[in-house]
Amino acid sequence: MKSPGISIVLGMLMFIHGIGAQAQCERGRSATFVRWSGVTPDKATPVFVYSASSEEDSLTGACLSRCRELEECAAVIVLYGKGTCQGVATIQDTQLRVDNDAAYFTKICLPVPEECSHRWWALESTPGYHLHADGPRSKLVYNTTVQACYEALLVPNREKIYR
């Protein structure tokens, strides 16, 4: 039985891939990643495959760095238990499956603040969960796209809180 949360996430991923597959970002934007915990696509076309060695500080960092350099790489699947990852091309029509020993990183262009530019990824999404904010310092964004929501989260505004 397919979870409704997985279907929603799939739609969001397909939207993100359309944006994230760009080799170069527009001025003022940087290629970064959104980390999706515990899911992987059931079918993907590999662009590269990488196995962990003792030479890198982080398997995830090495894989994301490689994908960032390759125009055809739109996402990265990291399989922690196997110590491997693969960069994948744009995924148009696929189902996501639960895999608690994996992470799925989608490439996206965002206006990343300078203090975050050294990080391997800028945002995290967890299937089945959503942002919830309340109080006088919260900000609600109505009728927006996933891209616009991500951008609102990264605006360096200490007056607004998203959680």
Automatic annotation (TrEMBL):
Residues 1-21 form the signal peptide. Keywords: Signal. This is Apple domain-containing protein.
